[in-house]
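Sample 3 of the quickstart, ligand magnesium ion:
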Amino acid sequence: MAKINWFPGHMNKARRQIKEIMPAIDVVIEVLDARLPKSSMNPVIAKARGDKPVVRLLSKDDLADPEVTEAWRRYYSDDVNMTVLSIVMTDRRQLARIPDLCRKLAPYRGGIGKPVRAVVVGIPNVGKSTLINGLVGRRIAKVGDEPAVTRRQQRIQIADDFTLMDTPGIMWPSPESEVGGYRLAASGAIRDTAVEYEDIALFAVDYLMQRYPERLIERYKLGSIPDGAMECMEAIARKRACIKGRDVDWHKVSEIILKEMRSGVLGRISLEEPDRDVPYRELDVDPHAI
Ligand SMILES: Nc1nc2c(ncn2[C@@H]2O[C@H](COP(=O)(O)OP(=O)(O)O)[C@@H](O)[C@H]2O)c(=O)[nH]1
Ligand SMILES: [Mg+2]
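Result:
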């Protein structure tokens, strides 16, 4: 997989912005994707926050494997300066807990004139805008798209003693490893590029075969799991009529698999676990060469 390249200007701008607002922030609301908390984390956030307390939200709880999410919650629970909560961003009842979690982490604030001041940070597509809109109670942040130019941030009063920046701190994804990059791509966090699309699906199938084989068997009526990921994709292609002439239509079958995995049709799937690394066995296989 090609390295994820971010225009350095954007990176520096994001870094600068987050640094600028930090002195006037009491609590950082860090949003991670529950399916891949580690790979969707950006180290700059940890640096920029210093010792500011954090509410770490594991978003898209409805798509992630509940057992694995619970393992992540425990994994992060050592830090006394941090509260971890798995969450579905569209669930207003769950969102309603957030101001209180922030208040508890900043007990020296509160009351008139000393509201707890929070900001939402995270990489694109983790649910920051959905969260801000849900907390504010109206659509102020654009969902599913990032504004090209960030306007000046403003504080919005959510309660007498709780304010929120109206725009999130956007951080670029920075996976530690090649597998981390693939996980991000498989989750849909990184925009699909034509070249890598089939590679991402191959990665996803290889992972699913190892971690959630029964889901593949059930969904695509496979009988048994084929030996390799390529064979598995081919079997799925035949079941779903993704055949061009006598060849497998790799793009079409990739689209089906990724779409169904990302939308939860294959059930709740986590892409990484705190203490278990599922190897990517086919990193060296190039489907275009076959
Ligand atoms: N299934 C699910 N989808 C979510 C959740 N939160 C956000 N989304 C979706 O994820 C996409 C990105 O959300 P958005 O709020 O724009 O993310 P942002 O880029 O971090 O601001 C949108 O299609 C949202 O509808 C969640 O908890 N569960
Ligand atoms: Mg957004």
